[in-house]
Amino acid sequence: MWALWTWLFSFFFILAILIIIGFQLVCLIDLEYDYINPYDSASRINRVILPEFITQGVLCFILLITGHWLMCFLSLPYLYYNATSRVRGVAMVWPGGPCPWYLQGEHLVDVTEIYNQLNREKKKRFVKIIYMICLFIFSLFWLLFNLEEEYD
């Protein structure tokens, strides 16, 4: 029964991440076709980046504590990429050592550079969405498998 609930939570967490990435992609495409200005696009994207990171972290934690090692192992590269991709090598010093990237604002989209980075940001989100669709398919398979096992 717990496995079924775990896969159900996993299904909805991955669906939420897919929606967030899709929203970011729509914002970038709207910016490309001049439907919105760079400030609005960057503020909309920046508003949902941290919830994306938190959702992915919670998903990995749930999969880890419930013993679904394969799915956790498949989810870790995405979490690692999110945690390390925004660090540019310049670390501020704060009382505990180097300042984490999220305190420097490195995870946010820069309003002044968004046009220069538009193609790269779109490609990153397309790769993220393809990766998450694969995880979504795996999660859906295990959800249906456990559902069938539960009611057999």
Write the layout of secondary structure elements.
Blueprint: H1 2-32, H2 38-65, H3 69-84, E1 93-94, E2 97-98, H4 101-104, H5 118-150
Helix pairs in contact: 1-2, 1-5, 2-3, 3-5
Can you walk me through this structure?
- It is a multi-pass membrane protein.
- Belongs to the cornichon family.
- One of its GO terms (cellular component) is membrane.
- With 152 residues, the protein is mainly α.
- It is 74% helix and 3% strand.
- It has one domain.
- A hairpin with a 2-residue loop joins strand 1 and strand 2.
- The longest helix has 33 residues.
Q: Mind describing the biggest β-sheet?
A: 2 strands, antiparallel
Strands of the largest sheet, in order across it?
1-2
The mean pLDDT is 86
The structural domain count equals 1
Give the overall shape, derived from the CA principal axes. elongated
CA-CA gap between termini: 12 Å
Q: What is the number of E strands?
A: 2
Low-confidence stretches: 87-94
The share of residues in helices is over 70%
Secondary-structure element sequence?
HHHEEHH
Query: Structural class, please?
Result: mainly alpha
Q: Helical element count?
A: 5
Organism: Ziziphus jujuba var. spinosa
Family: Belongs to the cornichon family.
Subcellular location: Membrane
InterPro entries: Cornichon
Question: What are the defining features of this structure?
Answer:
152 residues; mainly alpha; two-stranded antiparallel sheet; 5 helices; 3% strand; transmembrane
